[in-house]
Specification:
3 domains; two-stranded antiparallel sheet; single chain; Helix Hairpins; seven-stranded mixed beta sheet; about 650 residues
Length: about 650
């Protein structure tokens, strides 16, 4: 017997799979995609079970849904185990109604019923089974209860047949009967034809087209929305009869939600929380810790330089090590303490349940601009690194919204951009560096909204996908989990500094130390790097008010890695210490001495919102599906950043001239 395990994400599906199979598991990838495929043998049987990707419906929007539906149709499993999360039963049953339209037997594993019972919600298993016309088994994957009962039912094949209950209104049911093809899964296919599912367009006929038009006219709505609405009406009837809700005391979560999800307080609270996070990370505590690391990096560079001189090391090699490698890598590592604090704050907000709530609350606002709350998830993930943020856009069903989110995610200030923010804000806005940092965070939200409006109007046109999410209970963060999460993100940042930044620092040192005739020790104005920067300095004049080859090549280095902007500036300035205070990089007599608070702010804006690093560009290429679309996205990002930064600089000069 071949069995498919199907359910929503975070429904306990993977835990159930592990309990059913024990150690009898195989892990690989689904053909043609990088999504993990897990299969195994159910304990004490010879039945194969395949853990399908977590999905919310069998509509062909996400890669996960395509994989699941393809398996069900092409591999023809003998049984589907549908795990339902009792704490989010309405959302879970939506997928169930689709599974019950197939010609495959379905057994429901009702998970976490014990949790909802503690909240005063009782689910009548017998009534639920009778209304769905299928077998329902109560389990707790977390507590390992009901699993043997489930396996016993499967071994005895004690599972009700699927009678295909008629759950829609009379006119829709009549339409389904008229267009059902003479083949397996005929009811499911007929419903998909009425929903105008593109994957079933080859079944479309003149009769089905006429029926769809009639349904649109009758219900004054899109046929897909009509069927979705009727599914939810059916689910509401099930809830009325099978679920008994007892009055209980208001939980702590309910009380907190009255504050954090209040329509007047939610946004101000979010602004206050993020302001405190950045002021803590970039300002108060972060600044103190950075001074400690900064001093030690400088002392190490001086000590090593002295040691190398005593053993008669070549001047060029000492310069490479001290002015190139230590200056470049050290300039980035100075910011690790502040990154740790930022990662710690964000991780606590995520684990506590707050971030999922702000995504839910902002869904209504984002829908006005062609996005949904689902877009908030990549933005939150992207605050750590743009690459996983871009990859998480796969969960967005609508193609237009997904592509918009892919392009917009790099606008979120990621960890690699924090060194740029800190280096400039700590020197030019020392007393207000925390406020400057958070201003750029909220500026990113403004840029995302404006960009979404532009793209929705001229580039990506489509409907906004529905945002269905489970709001978890508020809970105290697990110290072990938070520390592990912070460690993983910090270590990933350090590895970048030890690989990409190291290589780039050596290249920058070489281009800065040699002329086009490969003469060593030339004036930096005559170096290869100066020649390259001078060719593109005109592009940055409206942002800086200065033709600076040094700032130009540093910004271009941001394409490799955003941290490299500061690393490159440190090498060019010929120093290996005191980067965060900026007293040497931005010395009035130095090569970057032309910077003013205004040009510093506009330069930060360009680097934060221009094309991301090569890693993120590669992820955009994979997710957008073509090099052409990726190039369009990179061009859009860079021109938007250039235009916005130039506007800020020009308006700043005008206002400064007036006052």
């Amino acid at each position: 017997m071949k069995i498919a395990l199907v359910g929503n994400q975070n429904s306990g599906k993977t835990t159930l799979f592990n309990l059913l199979t024990g150690n009898n598991q195989k892990i690989g990838n689904w053909p043609g995609v990088t999504i993990e495929r897990k299969s195994g043998i159910i304990r004490n049987t010879d039945y194969e079970i395949v853990d399908l990707p977590g999905i919310y419906s069998l509509s062909p929007y996400t890669i996960e849904e395509e994989v699941s539906r393809k398996y069900i149709f092409e591999e023809e499993p003998d049984l589907i185990i549908n795990i339902i999360d009792a704490t989010s039963i309405e959302r879970s049953l939506y997928l169930t109604t689709q599974l019950l339209e197939l010609d495959t037997k379905v057994i429901i594993a009702l998970n976490m019923a014990d949790i909802v019972e503690k909240k005063g919600v009782y689910i009548d298993i017998n009534k639920l089974s009778k209304m769905l016309n299928t077998t329902v088994i109560k389990i707790s994957a977390l507590k390992n209860t009901g699993i043997e009962h489930l396996i016993s039912h499967i071994r005895r094949r004690d599972i009700l047949d699927n009678p295909h209950s008629k759950i829609y209104s009379k006119s829709i049911e009549q339409a389904i009967d008229k267009i059902k093809p003479d083949m397996r899964h005929s009811r499911f296919i007929a419903v998909k034809i009425l929903e105008e599912d593109k994957m079933f367009s080859h079944y479309q006929s003149d009769e089905s087209t006429t029926l769809i038009k009639k349904l649109r006219h009758e219900f004054d709505s899109d046929s897909e929305e009509v069927i979705a609405g009727e599914r939810y009406s059916y689910i509401d009837k099930i809830k009325e009869k099978a679920i008994i809700i007892k009055k209980t005391k208001q939980s702590v979560t309910d009380k907190l939600d009255r504050i954090f999800l209040n329509k007047w307080l939610a946004i101000p609270i979010f602004i206050i929380i993020m302001t405190l996070v950045y002021m803590l990370a970039v300002g108060l505590v972060g600044g103190i810790t950075v001074d400690f690391v900064d001093t030690n990096v400088g002392l190490f560079s001086s000590w090593l330089g002295g040691k190398l001189e005593t053993i008669n090391t070549s001047p060029w090699l000492i310069s490479l090590i001290c002015d190139g490698i230590i200056a470049g890598v050290g300039a980035v590592l100075n910011f690790v303490p502040q990154l740790i604090i930022l990662f710690l704050c964000i991780s606590i907000l995520e684990v506590s349940g707050y971030m999922s709530r702000i995504a839910f609350f902002l869904d209504k606002l984002f829908r006005k601009f062609g996005l949904s709350g689902k877009s908030l998830i990549p933005f939150i993930v992207g605050s750590g690194c743009s690459v996983p943020g871009i990859m998480s856009c796969r969960t967005i069903e609508d193609e237009a919204e997904r592509k918009m989110t892919i392009v917009l995610t790099p606008f979120v200030p990621c960890s690699a951009k924090l060194p740029i923010i800190i280096a400039f804000s700590s020197f030019f806005f020392s007393e207000y560096q925390g406020l400057i940092a958070v201003s750029l965070y909220f500026l990113a939200i403004l840029v995302i909204i404006l960009s979404a409006i532009i793209m929705k109007k001229f580039i990506y046109k489509g409907k906004v996908s529905a945002f269905i999410t489970e709001l978890p209970e508020y809970k105290l963060p697990s110290v072990k989990y938070v520390l592990r999460d912070v460690f993983d993100k910090t270590w990933a940042f350090i590895k970048r500094a030890g690989s990409i930044i190291l290589i780039c620092s050596i290249i920058i040192w070489f281009l800065l130390s040699f002329s086009w005739r490969f003469e060593y020790g030339v004036e930096i104005a005559n170096s290869m790097l100066a020649g390259i920067g001078s060719a593109f300095a005109w592009f940055f004049y409206p942002i800086l008010g200065e033709y600076s080859w040094a700032a130009t090549v540093s910004a271009i280095q941001g394409l490799v890695a955003k941290e490299q902007v500061i690393s490159s500036m440190a090498i060019i300035a010929g120093l290996s210490e005191d980067v965060t205070n900026g007293s040497l990089i931005f010395s009035s007599t130095g090569i970057f001495g032309f910077f003013t608070p205004l040009s510093a702010y506009s330069f930060m804006i360009f680097n934060l919102f221009s094309a991301p690093c090569f890693g993120a560009i590669g992820a955009m290429r994979r997710e957008l599906g073509s090099t052409k679309q990726m190039l369009k996205a990179v061009t859009f990002q860079t021109l938007l950043a250039w235009g916005f930064a130039s506007l800020v600089f020009i308006l700043g000069k005008i206002i400064g001239g007036i006052f």
